[in-house]
Amino acid sequence: MRYKIPNISANLDLNENLKNIDKIIDNLNKRRDAGLDKDLENRLKKHLLISSVYNSNAIEGNKLSLRETEIILDGMVVNERPLKDEIEARSLSNATEYLYKLIDGREPLTQRTLLELHDLLMKNIPNIDGGKFRTEEVSIKNSDHKPIYWADVQDEIDELFKWMNRNMHKYNPIIMCSILHHWLAWIHPFSDGNGRVSRLFTNFFLLQKGFPEIVVKIADRDRYYNSLIDADNGDITNLVELFSDKIRQTVNVYEEFLNEHERLLQWHKKYKQIGSEDYSKAKETFSYEYEVWRNQINVFKTLLFKNVDTLSDVLPNITFYAKEYDILSYSQYLDIMEDRKVSNTWYIVISIHNKENDKSMGFVFYFERFRPTGKANIVEIKSKRPPNIKLFVTARKDQNSIRLERSVDLVNIGTHGDQLSFGVHNRNWDPKLKDKNGKASIITIKENPSKIIRTFLDQILYNYFDVGKKRPITAATRNQGGRTS
């Protein structure tokens, strides 16, 4: 039985997502190429190492907590946990650090490096022959997948590396690493440690290509396993989407560390006598506003998805696809208010397709500082109007952003005090506020958010997908009694 390369669904949103990630990686690498402070680089690497070791082991059933993993990697012992769990944490940490050394030394990804990583991974694990392919049949717990016959493992591994080297130029790196990851998991070449070594293998490939490593978290386990099952059945799209999301999360970690480091340097430059405790207190001046803002933005998301679900039920000819990204963390929230670089600002993408006329459009909700307000710093507000982050909406067609039609009222979503608020074109919302020339200005509406969201959906369906428009009377419709819809 030979591995068959899975299909990737024809998905414009996925293609656009991958192109967007390429730009994000380019921006991140420019900052990294400018040179990182050594202490910052070490702290960043340690953070990712602990997260990677904890989550990768937890997916395989290791019972150590994140804090216990950190303690063990700092050289201490946790007596309450099985010795095997501690050995697994140290071994995976050693293998991951070795991976970093291989990357720094520009070592190619080969069968030899795969075996070396597995050998380190299995170090001190009893009854496991590390660094060697299995010589017996194995089964995967809680899985219907039956790994290939043990005598075929070497041939299939050879084929994997041959295919990788022949086809490297044909695939986006995220697609390529997804295929290689699934292929290796499909082979199941070792008697134990296949999941962990496959994730190490994937990060080796990504780091080689200038991408940051990914961390598949314990919270992603069901999605991760389901994606592998889908790939077993011939479609790798969901695994590509998962790895895309994981790369975005790692970029967020890099940017948060970089921006916080810059913020701290500026603080120390201006206030050399102020310690880290006072700095932390100053950061907290925005924490209450952030919590209110985050909660209200989540209210908007809930209302939007609820109304989209309703439309999906009543409009059989319209297909809706909604994708959600992580809401801004507190550090990202501060970064945007201070005009620091934050790459991943998308929050929601709604893709709509009308089967009747084959029209397709996307609508992206993204975070940005509201420009009429001043930017912030940790010490003070540099404007009489405090900074405000809003959720703006734009249309996407053929992978390009275009401004919404003026006939669509909604402009942005934010908070006003502790309430959800909407920036809308002033037409029928409050005619009294129109200017003397009769041109619509943008006003803030706080009342009846569900109505505003429903109006937005009505307007984009009408303007972009002809839903609700009367059809012109033709000979065909005249013969049907002139019916219109």
From TrEMBL:
> Which Gene3D superfamilies does the entry link to?
Fido-like domain
Site keyed Important for autoinhibition of adenylyltransferase activity: positions? 60
Q: Which UniProt keywords apply?
A: ATP-binding, Nucleotide-binding
Annotated GO molecular function terms are: ATP binding
User: Which residues does UniProt mark as catalytic?
Assistant: 188
Q: Which residues form the Fido domain?
A: 109-245
Q: Which residues bind ATP?
A: 192-199, 224-225
In its UniProt entry, what is this protein called?
Fic family protein
Report the source organism: Aquiflexum gelatinilyticum
Its lineage reads: Bacteria, Pseudomonadati, Bacteroidota, Cytophagia, Cytophagales
